[in-house]
Design a protein that fits this description.
Order of helices and strands: HHHHEHEEEEEHHEH
Largest sheet: 7 strands, mixed
Number of helices: 8
CATH topology: Nuclear Transport Factor 2, Chain: A
Number of domains: 1
Mean pLDDT: 82
Radius of gyration: 23 Å
CATH architecture: Roll
CATH class: Alpha Beta
Length: 238
């Protein structure tokens, strides 16, 4: 055999394999669509960390991580004056309802079309403060208020939510942890036990009308529909 000829024909193979592996690796973690680089999930090892994991779970539509965020006694509170909360006066949004709404939004299974893309932006710096509720010790209970800019794209509509969210978080050695998670008391893990929606927009009620009842100008069709986070939850509760 002509050794030189064999080597000249054989050398592109490793480079070819290298090129293929550089394009796609079925064993690699999921890539973030916006950057092309994997963004690891934040660790919920602080008050800021659990809120960052909430943000990450929305952006990655990760239902499995999302349902780990909330205590067994968690509650969501609608913005004052938000008519979307009327349906839930006798049955407040608890953890079971919260994760069901997220499942419908992230992966489907409800009456509304699931998201094709979600972009959630909180403040670049999250600043925990003492929990303002009576009887809460700041060693175990903290409060974070953040600005919100949430855009959701579905097959039917694009939604936009702006305003603020107020999260009350609790350290894991003082939290009521859901049995299904299998997590024990842990001072290095934090949970969300209450979420106050403060995203009610003055134009939200009108803007959230069905597409058939809204103007059909070119500008209107390009703009996402503005609504409250509470309204979005009501849409994905069924």
């Amino acid at each position: 055999m002509n050794t030189k000829r064999f080597l000249s024909r054989a050398w592109p193979l490793p480079l070819l394999l290298l090129g293929v592996s550089g394009c796609f690796n079925p064993f690699a973690p999921r890539l973030a669509s916006s950057t092309g680089h994997y963004i690891p999930a934040p660790e919920p090892n602080s008050a800021e960390g659990v809120v960052r994991l909430f943000e990450w779970s929305y952006n990655h539509r990760d239902y499995s991580r999302y349902k780990e965020l909330f205590t067994a006694d968690y509650r969501f509170y609608f913005a004052l004056g938000d008519s979307a909360g009327n349906t839930f006066r006798d049955a407040p949004v608890n953890r079971e309802m919260e994760v069901t709404m997220a499942q419908h939004l992230f992966v489907g299974g409800g009456n509304a079309s699931p998201a094709n893309n979600i972009s959630l932006l909180f403040d670049p710096t999250l600043r925990p403060s003492d929990d303002d509720r009576d009887g809460k010790n700041p060693r175990w209970h903290r409060e974070i208020i953040t600005n919100v800019n949430l855009t959701i794209k579905t097959d039917d509509n694009d939604w936009n939510i702006q305003g603020q969210a107020r999260f009350y978080v609790v350290r894991g050695d003082s939290a009521l942890i859901p049995d299904e998670l299998g997590f024990g008391p842990d001072s290095t893990r934090w949970y969300i036990d209450r979420w106050n929606d403060e995203t009610l927009q003055g134009q939200g009620a009108a803007a959230a009308q069905p597409a058939s009842s809204r103007p059909t100008s070119a500008t209107d069709l390009l703009d996402p529909i503005t609504l409250s986070w509470g309204k979005l939850k009501a849409m994905y509760s069924r």
